[in-house]
Task: inverse folding
């Protein structure tokens, strides 16, 4: 299991993922452009993608701790560091350097600056809390009244559209009836003309 945690394996893993992603993209490009061998390239690309997902699923995720920045030597998998209260188990020459007072002072200064910024932000929130919103309820009531009237107007408009549709249907029926009446009148005229000839 030590090889999986080594820097060489991490480099190899990133290389496999990068090259595999490039092959997948090339397969998709071949297929999109309908170049010769597109189906083969797409099969190779998707097969590579399946292998990468299987590979990543089998090796599992890595922890995202960066304690080696505070305690040098932790990034070496084979180091002999005991619990933090005891320090390094190696020789005195291999021991990590003691904390520098200036570095600690700089870090504390940065923390103090962050705390001051947080205090200013909290003051701004308190000022917002003290703002008078008493007139807001009247504005909300006016807006509600406006939306109510708007909804009523939309409903009336819908009713007007329905009435217009019914009027149009009635005109169509009247037009059909007039057409039938015209044909009956034409037949009556023809019959009278034929009677007049006899």
Result:
């Amino acid at each position: 299991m030590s090889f999986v945690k080594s820097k060489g394996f991490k480099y190899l893993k990133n290389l496999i993922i990068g090259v595999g992603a490039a092959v997948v993209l090339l397969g998709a490009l071949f297929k999109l452009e309908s170049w010769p061998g597109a189906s083969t390239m797409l099969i190779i690309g998707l097969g590579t993608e399946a292998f990468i997902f299987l590979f990543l699923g089998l090796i599992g995720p890595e922890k995202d701790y960066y304690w080696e920045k505070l305690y040098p030597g932790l990034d070496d998998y084979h180091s002999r560091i005991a619990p933090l209260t005891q320090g390094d188990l190696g020789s005195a020459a291999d021991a990590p350097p003691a904390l520098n007072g200036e570095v600690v002072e700089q870090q504390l200064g940065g923390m103090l600056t962050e705390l001051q910024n947080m205090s200013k932000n909290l003051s701004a929130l308190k000022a917002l809390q003290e703002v008078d919103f008493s007139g807001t309820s009247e504005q909300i009531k006016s807006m509600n009244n406006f939306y109510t009237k708007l909804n009523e107007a939309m409903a009336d408009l819908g009713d007007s559209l329905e009435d217009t549709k019914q009027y149009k249907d009635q005109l169509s029926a009247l037009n059909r009836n007039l057409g039938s009446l015209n044909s009956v009148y034409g037949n009556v005229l023809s019959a009278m003309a034929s009677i007049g000839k006899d």
In short: The chain has a mean pLDDT of 79. The CA atoms of residues 26 and 41 lie 7 Å apart. Residues 1-71 form one domain. Residues 136-197 form the longest helix (62 residues).
